[in-house]
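fyi for ur records
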Amino acid sequence: MRLVLALASLRRNRARTILAVLGVAIAAAMLLDMVMLSTGMRESFRELLLSRGFQMRLTPRGTLPFDTEASIPGATGIVATLRARPEIDLVSPVLGASVHVLRGDSSITSFALGVDPAAQGDYQLAAGADALAPNAIVANDDFLRATGARVGDTLRIAAGYDPQLRSHSGERALVVAGRARFLYLAAGQLAIAAPLRTLQQMTGAAREDRASLFMVRLRDASKVKDVSRWIRTEFPAIDVISTADAMARVDERLSYFRQLSAILGAVSLVVGFLLVTTLVTVSVNERVGEIVVMRAIGISRLHIVEQIVLEGTAMSVVGAVLGTGLGLITARYLNTILSRFPGLPAAIDFFLFQPRDAWTAIGLLTACGVLAGLYPAWRAASLPLAHTLREEAVA
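which gave:
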C-alpha cells in the first residue's frame, strides 16, 4: 500500500519525476565510472601479468628491460641454473632490440623480441606457424600492414644502422612464418619475434649470450618469496620483480587516479543526494494539507515516513539502474581515448567492468535515496495537526 501511494505521488508530477530520475542517472553513471576507474587499471594490469602464468621477471639490476641497452650476459647458463631448481616450472629468456626492414633505399623500424618459442610468454599465435626455424619470425598486424608483408614472405631485416656510413649491419633474410598478437606492447607498435639465438647474432649479443630479461613460472605460487631470495643470492647482478612487487609499483603510480576517482565519486553521490532531497522536500511542501488530513484520520506517523522515504528510494533506484547502462557506454568511450596514451600496453583497460562495481554504485545511490527522504519525511510526520489544519483552511 505504501509503495502504491508513493508511486502515485511520483506520477502526479511526471515532468519533475522524470527530470529527477535523469539527474540521478547522470550521477549514477559518473559514480560507476569512478568506481571502475579506481580498480580497473590495477586489475587489468594484474590480469595481464598473470595471463601467461609467469609470476616473476628477472631484469638487470637498477634498470628496466628494454628502456636502456642494459642486458644480462650468460643467458644459457642462467636458464640452466634456474631450471634445475625444483620449484621452477618454466623459464623464458627474452632479448629486446630495434630492427630495420629494408625496402630498397628506405627502411621501416620495428621492435623485435628474441625468444625461445617453446617457452615464450610474450605473444599469442593467431595464424600460421611459430618462429621455430632460425630464419623464421612472427609479426603482429601493425607490422604486416606497415610493410605490406604476408605470411610466407621473405624480408630483409637488419639490426643496426651506422648514420655516418649510411649502412646497415646484422642483415638477414627472414621468413614471416606466422601472425601473432603481442601482449605487452602499446597499440600501434610494430613488432616481430624471432628465435633468441637469431636476434643475438644479428645484434652482436651472441658472443656474451645476452638477454634483456627472464620470465619465470613457478609450480607453486606460494614459493615466490623463497625463490626470489635464492635468485638474488645466486645472481647478485639480477633484480627480481614478482607480480606482487609490480603491483605495488603500479599502486604508487596509480594513486592519482584513485584519489581523483574518490573525489569525483563523492561529488556524484552528494549531487544525487541533494537532488533527491530537494525534490522530495518540494513534493512534501506541496502536499502538507494532504499529509495532515491523513494524520487526522488516523494514519500513523510511521506510515507517512515510509511512504515519503519510498518516493526518494524509488527515484534513486530507477535512476541508478538507468545510470548503470549510461555509465558503461561512457566508460567504453573514455577507455578508447585513454588507451591511446603513448607506451601503454594495448591490453590495459582503464575502466574494467566488474559486477560488484555496478552493485556498489546502485547500493550507494539507493542508500542516498533512503537518507534523502528521511528529513522531509520526519518534518512532514512531525507537523502539529491543529495548527497546520487551521493554516491550510485559512490559505
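The chain has twelve helices and twelve strands. thats all i got for now
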